Amino acid sequence: MSKEKYRPETLAAQGMGRIAQPYLEIAPAIHVSTTYERAADGTYPGKRIYSRADNPTYDAAEALVASLENAAGAMLFSSGQSAAAALFQSLAPGDGILAPRNMYWALRKWLLDFAVHWGLRVELYENASLDDLAAKAATHRPRVIWIETPANPTWEVTDIAAASAIARKHGAIVAVDSTSATPFLTRPIELGAAIVMHSATKYLNGHSDVIAGALATAADDALWQRIRYVRGSGGGVLGPFEAWLVLRGMRTLHLRVAACSSNALAIAERFHRHPKLPHVLYPGLPSHPQHDTARKQQRGPGAMLSFDLGSLEAARRFLNQVKICALAESLGGVESLISLPALMTHASMPKEVQERIGISDGLVRLSVGIEDLEDIIADLDQALLYV
Predict the structure, then answer these.
(1) How far apart are CA 242 and CA 55, in angstroms?
(2) Do the beta carbons of residue 101 and residue 357 sit within 8 Å?
(3) What is the pairing mode between strands 326-327 and 337-339?
(4) d(CA 134, CA 169)
(5) pLDDT above 80 (res 5)
(6) Cα–Cα nearest to 316, from 358, 276, 363
(7) Is 312 exposed, middle or buried (0-12, 13-18, 19+ CB in 10 A)?
(8) Which of 41, 113, 331, 336 has the fewest CB atoms within 10 Å around its CB?
(9) Torsion angles phi and psi, residue 98, rounded to 5
(10) For residue 341, how many other CB atoms are within 10 A of its CB?
(11) HEC per residue, 329-377
């Protein structure tokens, strides 16, 4: 199947086409071998050496990620964290990183606790503030500007095209964590980014049954080859069965993202004027500070939203009454999940850091799934009676 002829939805549903020979299976095969036979002269006739470097099962999944992102190439990793870390491990001592103050908590902690000890310079900028980004880029001269947009769990939206222009001015590249946007809402490479990262655990897989990560690149350049070396030498590869699960999940990505986003928009519109919800954070609402930016660079507002119930006690009462949305970490699955960042994902942060990035004790995050919309609304309505 030639990817130039078809739209992303078709490529996703077809899993990039039925490529397996000789049987032409509808479902792609899983290749479990860890090693490959050499010829007598020491070469590899099958063009494979060892599965820590690559595996035929990766091919279709990586090709589909690259196609969906309009990228020159893609790589799968054992997690989103290992994918992001591989990029930073590919830099040289003394290289600078500008990262948003509010970002995936584990990667922020990794940058501040580990990357700086390897000689990388890490500076934080205010999410969505192009002025702060430009000023710090001029002062710190970073090698990489990292963007997470929309930023979990307060959903600030950063203008990728404008940030990429700032990066070019200062000799940097932009890398975007586009996990919550997915390729069906935002394609950062088309907006000037050099690298796109996904926690494929989330929407790309979409079924909460595999841990995986992915990077996509605008160019097959020296940095990309360095990242490939880091993946192979460090062993941050995905198993073949997990790669197959990610490919399986991506075949329904466009349907799931559309359904989840439609539900989320309806929920946000239904509750943003609720007397017990003074603050609903969702890029699809005109009240969102970066609503116009989101409309410009996203094909839809997404399926993640947060709301503030005012206090930890109120949040706990609410969560004790919710029936449909399981109280659990993660996001992007077919099922709706709800979480309390202050006591869950961000609990290791000092309280002043939580407050600085907008995480109050009463902030509740909702990953909206594909359940019946009226069922979700009714469940949230009855739980709010206890707030």
Answers:
(1) 12
(2) yes
(3) parallel
(4) 9
(5) no
(6) 363
(7) middle
(8) 41
(9) -105, 120
(10) 24
(11) CCCCCCCCEEECHHHCCCCCCCHHHHHHCCCCCCEEEEECCCCCHHHHH
Compute the distance between CA of residue 45 and CA of residue 32 in angstroms, rounded to an integer. 18
What tokens appear for 212 in the block? 């995986």
Strands 326-327 and 213-217: unpaired
One DSSP character per residue, 158-201 reads --HHHHHHHHHHTT-EEEEE-TTT-TTT--GGGGT-SEEEE-TT
pLDDT, position 102: 96
Average pLDDT, the chain: 94
Residue among 293, 46, 249, 28 nearest 158 (CA): 293
CA separation for the pair 88, 169 (Å, rounded): 21
- Residue 18: pLDDT band with limits 50, 70, 90: low
Which residues are annotated as catalytic?
52, 104, 177, 202
Q: Residue 25's pLDDT is what?
A: 77
- The whole-angstrom separation of Cα 303 and Cα 277 is 18
Give the phi and the psi of residue 139 in degrees, each rounded to 5: -80, -45
Question: Do residues 6 and 70 touch, judged by C-beta distance below 8 A?
Answer: no
Give the whole-angstrom CA distance, residue 83 versus residue 215. Answer: 6
Tens of pLDDT, residue by residue over 84-107, are: 999 999 999 999 999 999 999 999
Interatomic CA distance for residues 238 and 58, integer angstroms: 8
**In the predicted structure, residue 38 carries a pLDDT above the cut 80:** yes
- Say if residues 116 and 124 touch (Cβ distance below 8 Å): no
Domains with residue ranges and CATH for the chain? 3-250 (3.40.640.10), 254-384 (3.90.1150.10)
Average pLDDT over residues 327-346: 96
How many other C-beta atoms are found inside a 10 Å radius of the C-beta of residue 169?
11
Picking from 177, 182, 249, the residue whose alpha carbon sits closest to that of residue 211 is 249
Looking at residue 299, its pLDDT comes to 96
Place of tokens 């609720």: 274
**Is this prediction's pTM over 0.85?**
yes
Which residue is listed with tokens 């993946």? 231
The pLDDT tens digits of the residues spanning 352-374 come to 999 999 999 999 999 999 999 99
CA distances from 263 to 154, 222, 366 (A): 19, 42, 11
The pLDDT tens digits for 274-296 are: 999 988 999 999 999 999 999 99
> Has residue 138 got a pLDDT over 80?
yes
